[in-house]
Amino acid sequence: MNTFLKRLLIILAVVAVGLFLYSHFVEDIFSKRLSPKDAVKFELNDTRLQVQYNRPFKKGREIFGALVPYDKVWRTGANEATTFSTNKNLLVDGKSLPLGTYTLWTVPKDSTWIVYFNTKEYPWGVDEKMQPMREPEFDLIEVEVPVINLDNTVEQFTIAFDNTTDNLKLTMAWDHTKIEVPMEVSMVQPE
């Protein structure tokens, strides 16, 4: 066997061992996630918004007030912290949100939710004690929005953008609950 083939086989073996070790110790890249990653984007003219999050399933469980307790900070999804990115300055329910990337945190309540846009990026949504990693001193804005009760069941947690009436909203829905966070592009943009 020539030297080139020997080196190629050694490199392929090292790559295979590296993938196996990464999969075993860091993230199982060969099995399906229980709460799959997803990204939702909104583009209109030169405005680009994006949310990256993980989508847990209901699986017959009671969600709000049980699995996701009322009046406590929730990482707004599963696994990694949910991120929101904008390339434009926004008004979120009338409050200024500069362009950038934020983590989204929520406090679900029976009739309203509080939504936080936090300037710190966190590698994961909860710590080793399963407590949300959010640090309140990095909250840039908070808005409180009403809960919309749904007749149908949303099986998998879903974040979306709704602009059907030219009134942009960031929506979150799961089980029989939905919220809408009003957004608009700010007239004040960086030069």
Automatic annotation (TrEMBL):
It comes from Gelidibacter salicanalis. This is DUF2911 domain-containing protein.
